Amino acid sequence: MRPDHRGFSLIELLIVVAIILIIAAIAIPNFMRSRMAANQASAIQSMRVISTAQVTYASTYGGGYSAALSELGPPPAGVPPSSSAAGLIDETMATGVKSGYSFLYSPTLQDTTGRYNGYNVQANPTTPGQSGTTYYFTDQSHVIRANPTGPAGASDTPVAQ
After folding, report:
1. Which residues contact 127 (CB under 8 A, 6 or more apart)?
2. What is the DSSP string of 19-50?
């Protein structure tokens, strides 16, 4: 080998690659946990937004709660808000899927006029264990409840407010 050649030896390159792999092995699980925590925080916030939108919808249109989550979504461009497109939640949330969670909305009919006086919303991870680990529930009481093992319901533990 001539002393005037410059560059890295194979051993030096292997050591650098090994160090990068070690750092990646440590960082990737932490990144995944951070992403799941962010998705879960987003799901809780989305549940709060849905509850607030339902109260606004009921007081604005006077016919109880909405029949579907899409009724809380934005109206088409240039069209004023109405009971079928109130503009109270964003377009993404109105589809029922946001930040790794799917939102299942079901109104409850409680009177003879066809007025919905209650509702249930469940937020379930789209890929349990990857997009989130906790399931959430809320209803017209506006208390958000959580269950770490399966779909949450009205009897589960409330989330700290």
Report:
1. 100
2. HHHHHHHHHHHHHHHHHHHHHHHHHHHHHHHH
Q: Are 94 and 69 in contact (CB under 8 A)?
A: yes
| 2-39 residue pLDDT tens | 566 678 889 999 999 999 999 999 888 888 899 999 99
> In this structure, are residues 39 and 130 in contact, taking their beta carbons and an 8 Å threshold?
no
Q: Which residues of 91-118 are buried (b: 16+ CB within 10 A; e: fewer)?
A: eebbebebbbbebebebeeeeeeeebee
- pLDDT single digits (tens) 56-74: 999 999 889 999 999 999 9
SS3 84: coil
Measured CA to CA, the distance from residue 58 to residue 49 in angstroms comes to 14
d(CA 158, CA 161): 8
Collect all residues with Cβ–Cβ distance below 8 Å to 85 and sequence separation of at least 6: 70, 71, 73, 74, 75, 76, 79
How far apart (Å, rounded) are the C-alpha atoms in residues 119 and 143?
12
CA–CA gap between residue 118 and residue 43 (Å, rounded)? 20
Mention every residue, 6+ apart, whose C-beta is less than 8 A from residue 46: 93, 98, 99, 101, 103, 123
